[in-house]
Amino acid sequence: xxxxxxxTGYVLLEALVALLIFSLGLLGLIGFQAxxxxxxxxxxxxxxxxxxxxxxxxxxxxxxxxxVAVDFASPSGSQFTAWLNNRVQGASxxxxxxxxxxxxxxxxxxxxxxxVRLNITWSxxxxxxxxxxxxxxxxxxxxxxx
Length: 146
Fold this sequence. Notes:
Blueprint: H1 2-7, H2 10-66, H3 78-91, E1 98-105, E2 114-128, E3 134-145
Antiparallel strand pairs: 1-2, 2-3
């Protein structure tokens, strides 16, 4: 009888240990799911930024080739600024998107050749750094405009 009394409770203890191990595994899976969602969102924003940069450079190339807008090659030109603000802030799917451009002439190419550097930044929603500020994503590219 004494042996039977000492054996009680082992099943309950084993069940609690199994439940603990299962819970830890489930928490690990939830952590992996959260990390994969973050990576997928970051990838989506980077793809959007790359497509936006490609569109901006293509539009700049068309304007530069046709010489429709002379001030397009200038970052302070009115047509360029109006178009850039309308496209980036109005039609971009990037949250709080900002684009900075730098134009430079290339001396070893034709006289109408420009080097454009686009830097696209956006706010990553739901993230903050240690200082309480939003974390920003960034995409930078350079291209020659002929």
